[in-house]
Amino acid sequence: HNITCKVGYPYLKTAEEISIKISFQFNASYLLENATVHVYATSDSEEPPETLRDNRGHVTIPVKYEVGLIFVSVFKEHHVIIAANDTVPTAINTPEQIGDEVTLHYRIEKGEHFPMPNLTLQILFPNITAVKNTLLYLTALSHSQNAICETSYPVDPLKISAGKPFVLSKIKEPTKDTIMDCDTYSCASINCALVPSDVYQVNVSLRVWKPTIIKASIHSLTLVAKALLRSENSSLILRNDNQKLETMIKISKELPPGTVPLWVILLSIFAGLLILALLIFALWKAGFFKRPLKKKMEK
Prior knowledge:
Strand content: 35-45%
CATH superfamily of the domain at 68-253: ntegrin, alpha v. Chain A, domain 4
Domain Integrin alpha third immunoglobulin-like: 74-247
Transmembrane segments: 260-284
CATH topology of the domain at 68-253: Immunoglobulin-like
Shape: flat
GO cellular component, one term: external side of plasma membrane
Membrane topology: Single-pass type I membrane protein
Keywords: Glycoprotein, Integrin, Membrane, Transmembrane, Transmembrane helix
Distance between the termini: 109 Å
Largest sheet: 7 strands, mixed
CATH class of the domain at 68-253: Mainly Beta
Number of helices: 4
């Protein structure tokens, strides 16, 4: 496209500047990596040949297209409750003895306007504690045919689903943390290459390793699993809200009968002190503490 503009009519003053604003509208069916603008300045007046070289210039602008895909997780939170009478067995013989199952479902759908780029999906979840006790155990991984997935942590590495018993370690769990995520703890990863398609589906099945939670001296724990989506095409980018999804796995332990939670004790103490302060304030306002001691001494 050629655009001709008459500027500085009838003439430009010395050191005078002219600003020109150009707006572009791009065709979604024909994607450009760059937009180049060439500018030429001509004049009706005569100009010495040695100054003609600065009468032209160009600027190249990289073009980024925001892909309007849909990236969702079926569940944002999972809640797991461990009974007060649960104990640590000597061995695990079936997947059900490991603990409750948590399934992560991820779905990606193509947007309306732009083509789907090559994508990479990375799923991270905390799998062990600092002393190598298991937190989340990977039992199954399934995905659509247009996804190619590899794991850093094998599916069912102990072969428990195949009937192989696993003798539990007696190592205690010293952790005091109530939140574990991949920023501070070791995490297993699942990396999926997604070839351009309309719909993708990735499902991850995990088991909460109940013996570790029972051995830990904490009453609640939140495990944070996250999925990171990245475009492999520098021109087709993702919105910020389509780049990361987090799933909270909230685990709580029931207290034994007759046990009062610490927060109840602290709340009761605080309420008692507050009532005492209000009572003292009411007595002070009523003049209870204003005794005529000085007058009695004078008499």
